[in-house]
Design a protein that fits this description.
single chain; alpha/beta; Rossmann fold; 4 domains; five-stranded parallel β-sheet; 18 helices; 47% helix; 13% strand
Length: 455
């Protein structure tokens, strides 16, 4: 197997030193040289060295940093590069300071080539081990997650590949899926993998803000635009300029604002409420919804043209119940998180609790799993978290189970309906639409299972 030679950048304002080191190392390594800080930073970007030899007394030129200052710039740019400081006899104290600032080692003039080669070999060996350890750590994490999204189910791996493909391209993305499936995490991953990752990521929940205030939140307003507008307000779209805006629950956007949002997507300009001039913005739009927008369009509750503008790319997140063993990974992830947070290292999950977690339908998806595990860690009275601690009934599924299929279905149907009405704050019309039921049928089921607002 062909092993690529390591790259070494020699930085010294003494041409004799540069030539001496280049001649001594040229057979074993790929060598570049630089005489000052400006050349060094240019070579650093273009050559991408593995190791740098740096004169600690590098003379500043035209405002350039000296050797110590340049070391700080190198470490800041890439902390994996090994830097060896070249010092004179009088510079030993400065050399020790340089090691504290991030240099790997130093050696003194006059240069002993055999000693230099030994230090370089040792530094590159250490660098290899550090990079290999980092690669292994990253590969372990990637096997269970991606950009803070935990999972390795095939459906999630395909979503990770889609994110990698679309993130660098400035197109709108629509993320769909049930509540609690992690739509905002996907939006944040798209932003993190994009060229806008050092610019703002601005989320706004279109369903959590009253429609009378939502227009001002999105587009801003001028002073005096309406009663109570005592000063100018910059909207979220302007705040997200050059970055990404995440429009969560876009399906709740009122029809009149759908028109304004469509216009913004078409020409990327807006007018604040009460404003008289257009403001041009560079904003990437990522939207999400748990609603069936196809049905909403059929019911004339969502504009067709806005839907097609938003869904250039559509990422559909699977519910937790369809993600197989991901539920075990997520359980371990959240359990470890809250055991650390609440300082309960000896607490474990009872086997029957894990069984209950696997058998449960999780209508609230990942958000519900996280909240229940957090509760379990807090309220557990013994050294094990039992099903009661996470407020899940223990239902044993085995050949010896005396529960009939009819009873089992009723247990989970009741639990599912109760979760949905509570999650939607007893908005019966909204729940009926989500479950594809008539209001009358939903009321009948609530009465059948004795589900009431008090309970």
């Amino acid at each position: 197997m062909l092993i690529e030679k390591a790259r070494i950048l020699i930085v010294d304002d003494d041409e004799g030193i540069r030539n001496q080191l280049k001649w001594a190392l040229d057979d074993d390594y790929i060598i570049e040289v630089a005489a000052d800080a400006t050349e060094t930073m240019q070579r650093l970007r273009e050559f991408q060295p593995d190791l740098i030899t740096l004169d600690i007394s590098l003379s500043p030129f035209a405002g350039d940093p000296d050797g110590i200052d340049l070391l700080g710039e190198i470490v800041k740019m890439d902390s994996t590069i090994k830097v060896l400081m070249i010092t004179g006899l009088e510079d030993k104290a400065k050399a020790l300071d340089a090691v504290r600032l991030g240099a790997y080692d130093f050696y003194q003039k006059p240069i002993d080539i055999s000693e230099v080669k030994f230090i370089i070999t040792r530094a590159l060996g250490m660098q290899y081990l550090e990079r290999e350890n980092r690669r292994l750590a990253e590969s372990v994490f990637e096997s269970i997650g991606y950009q803070n999204i935990v999972g390795n189910h095939p459906s999630m791996l395909e979503i990770f590949r889609t994110i990698d493909s679309v993130a660098p391209i400035d197109i709108t993305v629509l993320i769909t899926g049930e509540s609690g499936t992690g739509k905002e995490l996907v939006a944040r991953a798209i932003h993190a993998k994009s060229m806008r990752n050092n610019k703002p990521f601005i989320p706004i929940n279109c369903g959590a803000i009253p429609s009378s205030l939502l227009e001002s939140e999105l587009f801003g307003h001028e002073k005096g635009a309406f009663t109570g507008a005592y000063q100018r307000k910059i909207g979220r779209l302007e705040t997200a300029n050059e970055g990404t805006i995440f429009l969560d629950e876009i399906g709740e956007l009122p029809m009149e604002l759908q028109v304004k949002m469509l216009r913004f997507l078409q020409d990327h300009t807006l007018e604040r409420i009460g404003g008289k001039s257009s403001i041009e913005l560079d904003v990437r739009v990522v939207a999400a919804t748990n609603k069936d927008l196809q049905r909403a369009m059929a019911d004339k509750l969502f504009r067709d043209d806005l839907y097609y503008r938003l869904s250039v790319i559509n990422i559909e997140l699977p519910p937790l119940r369809d993600r197989g063993d991901d539920i075990k990974l997520l359980t371990k992830y959240f359990l470890d998180k809250y055991l650390r947070q609440f300082s309960k290292p000896g607490l474990t999950l009872a086997r029957k609790t894990m069984k209950a977690i696997e058998n449960y339908g999780w209508p609230g998806n990942i958000r519900e799993l996280e909240n229940r595990l957090k509760r379990g860690v807090i309220v557990a009275q013994s050294d094990e978290i039992i099903p009661d601690d996470i407020n899940i009934d223990e239902v044993e599924l085995s050949e010896k189970s005396e529960m009939s299929l009819y009873d089992f279905r009723n247990v989970y149907e009741k639990r599912f309906i109760q979760q949905r009405v509570e999650a939607n704050r007893w908005n019966i019309s909204k729940v009926a639409r989500e479950l594809d039921l008539s209001r009358t049928t939903l009321y009948d089921l609530l009465n059948k299972y004795g589900i009431s607002k008090k309970k």
